[in-house]
Write a structure and sequence with these properties.
28% of the residues lie in helices and 27% in strands. It has 545 residues and is α/β, with parallel strands linked by helices. The longest helix is centred in the middle third of the chain and has 27 residues. The mean pLDDT is 92. Bound molecules: flavin-adenine dinucleotide.
Length: 545
C-alpha cells in the first residue's frame, strides 16, 4: 500500500507496477494538487519518469532551461550555465507545474498497470481518491491501516508493506511516533504565481536588493501556460498574515514587472507564504514501513531538491521492494534504501542550507558577507562562483553496501561504483538513442567489446538471473555489448561518437554492472562470469558476503 498520491506516491506506484508489483494507493484529496508547488524538474527526475514513459508528455509540456542570471540592485553579477551538451537526452532542468507531474505520473501508473511501456506481468495500481489513512498499526508481518473513504466510512485494511508518501505533515509518521529532526529557518518568502503573456527567455532569474523592492531578494521562473512564479523575501518585521494579502503583494509584483519591462496585462493566480526547513527522519525504513519524499525529509526549495529528491527516493526504492516482494532478494536489501537516501538527504540539506542562507541571510553578519560577495562579483569574475546557485544533481552512493570492489586503480574517469552511470549518445537498433534508456528496469551489464559474439559464460549469467517483470521476456540482468563500430542488434549498440568508451574509460572486455536505478555497482577490466554472478548475489543480500 502507498499512502499519499502526490508526485512521489504516484511515481512510486508507477514504478512498482512497471516492476510487476500491484498496489493500492490512498490519496486524501479528490485529485492532483493545485497552487504553487514544485516547478523545476531536474535531468535525473526526467530520467526516472522516463522509466515509466512519463517523460514524453513532460517534455512536450515543460520549458527546458540551462542557466540563469543574478542581479545585484540593477546590475547583472552572474550568468551561469549548468553542464549540458547538444547530444543529451534531457535538458538539465525543465519548468513544469507539479500538477502536471502528478497527472503524468498517475497516467504512467495506470499505463504501466495496463502494460503500456512495461513488460510482461506489470502490476495493477488501484488509486483511491478522497481516501485518508487515519491510523496505522505496524507489526512484524505487516501494517494495519484504518482508512476513511469519501463517504465517511472507516475500514481497516491490512498490507504487507506500506510506503508513506503522505507529505510534510505525514499521518503515518505521526502514527509511528517518529519525528523529523533538523532546523527551520526564520526567513519567509511570499510565493506568487501570475499569468502574463511573455516572450522572455526561460532561465532562472534572481535579484538581490532590487530597486523595485529594496532590501528584498526576488526569484522568477517562467512556467508553461504563460504562468510566472515570483518569490520574494518578506522583511523580518512583517506580519506573515498581512504579507500574503493581495493589497500588499500586488504592488510589489507590479513594481518588479515594471522594473524589468514586462508591460503585458497580468493577473495573480495563487499567493502563499513559505519558510525553509532542513528536516529529516534518521532512517527511512521502520520494519515494514518505508518513508519517501516529504514524509521522510523536508529540504529548502532553493536549489530545487524537494520533489527531485523524492523522485529519487521512489526510483531507489521501487526495484528493491519489487525484488523483495517477488522473493528474489532478502528484505535486508531495503536497508540500503534507507542508508543511501538518508545520505542523499544530508547532502541535499547541506546544499539547500547554503542556498537558503544566501537567499535570506539568517543574521546581520551573513547579510554583510553576502553584500560584500555581490559587490565584489560586479568587478572580480572569479568571485562569481561563490554566488552561483548549485541546482539539484544526482547524489553519489559511494559508501553503499551494494557497491562491489571498484578496481579504481585500473580505471580513470568518474564512473566509480556508487556513481550515476554516465550518459552517452549511441546508435541503437531503432536509431539514435541514449545509454540511460536501458536503465530503470533490470540490472544492466555493459560489455565493451568489438568482438561480435558475447562470451558464452556472460550470456549464461544473464540467462540464469531471476525473472524480472518489468523487462519483457528477459531476466533481471540485461547484457548489452557496446562496440565502437559494426552494426547494432538486440544486444549491441554502437558508440559512434566515442562518448561511452571515453566516459566509462573502457578497453576491450571492460565490463560495468549497473543497478536498475542507473547507478554503477561494479566494474572490471576482464570480468569472469563468476564476478558478475557473485556481484548480483551479494547485491540481492544487501552487500552481505
Ligand atoms: C512553493 C514551492 C515550490 C517548490 N519548488 C520545487 C521545485 O521547483 N523543485 C522541487 O524539486 N521541489 C520543489 N518544491 C517541493 C515539492 O513541492 C515537494 O517536495 C513535493 O511536493 C513532495 O512530494 P510528496 O509526494 O512527497 O508530498 P506531497 O506533494 O505533499 O504529497 C503528499 C500527498 O499525500 C496526501 N496525504 C496526506 N496525508 C494523507 C493521509 N493521511 N492519507 C492519504 N493521503 C494523504 C496529500 O493530500 C498529498 O497529495 C516546492 C515546494 C513549494 C511549497
Amino acid at each position: 500500500m502507498i499512502v499519499g498520491g502526490g508526485p512521489v506516491g504516484l511515481t512510486a506506484a508507477a514504478l512498482l507496477a512497471h516492476h510487476g508489483v500491484s498496489c493500492l494507493l490512498l490519496e486524501a484529496d479528490g485529485t492532483w494538487c493545485e497552487g504553487s508547488r514544485a516547478i523545476c524538474l531536474s535531468r535525473r527526475s526526467q530520467e526516472i519518469l522516463g522509466w515509466v514513459g512519463a517523460d514524453r508528455p513532460m517534455i512536450a509540456k515543460g520549458l527546458p532551461w540551462v542557466g540563469g542570471r543574478s542581479y545585484f540592485r540593477d546590475r547583472e553579477v552572474l550568468h551561469f550555465e549548468m553542464p549540458s551538451e547538444a547530444t543529451e537526452r534531457f535538458a538539465p532542468m525543465i519548468n513544469i507545474q507539479q500538477y502536471y507531474i502528478e497527472q503524468y505520473a498517475h497516467a504512467a501508473a495506470l499505463g504501466a498497470a495496463a502494460g503500456v511501456g512495461a513488460g510482461h506481468g506489470a502490476g495493477a495500481v488501484d488509486v483511491r481518491w478522497s481516501t485518508r489513512a487515519c491510523a496505522v498499526r505496524a507489526h512484524s508481518s505487516g501494517v494495519d491501516v484504518d482508512i476513511q473513504t469519501h463517504d465517511g466510512m472507516t475500514h481497516c485494511v491490512h498490507t504487507d508493506w506500506l510506503i508513506a508518501c503522505d507529505g510534510g505533515r505525514s499521518t503515518v509518521r505521526e502514527q509511528m511516533g517518529l519525528q523529523l529532526e533538523g532546523i527551520q529557518y526564520e526567513g519567509r518568502y511570499v510565493i506568487v504565481d501570475i499569468e502574463q503573456d511573455t516572450r522572455r527567455k526561460v532561465e532562472r532569474l534572481a535579484w538581490f536588493d532590487p530597486p523595485s523592492n529594496p532590501g528584498s531578494t526576488i526569484l522568477m521562473h517562467r512556467q508553461p501556460d504563460n504562468i510566472w512564479r515570483i518569490d520574494y523575501q518578506v522583511a523580518d518585521h512583517e506580519d506573515p498574515v498581512q504579507a500574503v494579502k493581495p493589497d500588499n503583494v500586488l504592488p510589489r509584483v507590479r513594481a518588479h514587472l515594471e522594473m524589468i519591462g514586462e508591460t503585458a496585462p497580468w493577473k495573480p493566480l495563487w499567493i502563499s507564504i513559505y519558510n525553509a526547513k532542513c528536516l529529516t527522519l534518521q532512517g527511512y525504513r521502520h520494519g515494514r514501513v518505508l518513508f519517501a519524499g516529504d514524509a521522510a525529509h523536508l529540504v529548502p526549495i532553493f536549489g530545487v531538491r524537494g520533489l527531485n529528491s523524492g523522485l529519487d527516493d521512489a526510483g531507489n526504492l521501487a526495484w528493491k521492494l519489487a525484488l523483495v516482494l517477488q522473493g528474489h532478494a532478502g528484505d535486508a536489501l531495503l536497508d540500503s534504501y534507507s542508508s543511501e537516501r538518508v545520505r542523499a538527504t544530508r547532502e541535499n540539506i547541506a546544499f539547500g542550507a547554503k542556498s537558503t542562507e544566501f537567499m535570506a541571510p539568517p543574521h546581520e553578519g551573513f547579510a554583510l558577507m553576502r553584500e560584500a560577495a555581490l559587490r565584489l562579483a560586479l568587478v572580480v569574475p572569479s568571485v562569481r562562483s561563490l554566488i552561483n546557485p548549485r541546482q539539484s544533481s544526482p547524489v553519489e552512493y559511494t559508501d553503499s553496501p551494494l557497491n562491489q570492489s571498484d578496481h579504481g586503480d585500473a580505471f580513470g574517469g568518474s564512473a566509480r561504483a556508487g556513481m550515476p552511470a554516465p550518459e552517452a549518445k549511441l546508435q541503437m537498433p531503432q536509431g539514435q538513442g541514449h545509454l540511460t534508456e536501458f536503465y530503470g528496469s533490470a540490472f544492466v551489464a555493459l560489455y565493451f567489446s568489438n568482438h561480435p559474439r558475447l562470451p558464452v559464460s556472460l550470456r549464461r549469467v544473464a540467462e540464469a538471473a531471476p525473472p524480472c517483470a518489468g523487462f519483457s521476456g528477459a531476466g533481471s540482468l540485461r547484457l548489452i555489448r557496446v562496440a565502437t563500430r559494426g552494426t547494432t542488434d538486440a544486444r549491441t549498440v554502437v558508440d559512434d561518437l566515442g562518448q561511452a568508451w571515453q566516459r566509462y574509460d573502457a578497453r576491450e572486455s571492460t565490463l560495468y554492472l549497473v543497478r536498475p536505478d542507473g547507478y554503477v555497482m561494479g566494474r572490471w577490466r576482464d570480468a569472469e562470469s563468476a564476478d558478475i554472478d557473485m556481484a548480483l548475489k551479494r547485491a540481492l543480500r544487501n552487500g552481505k558476503p
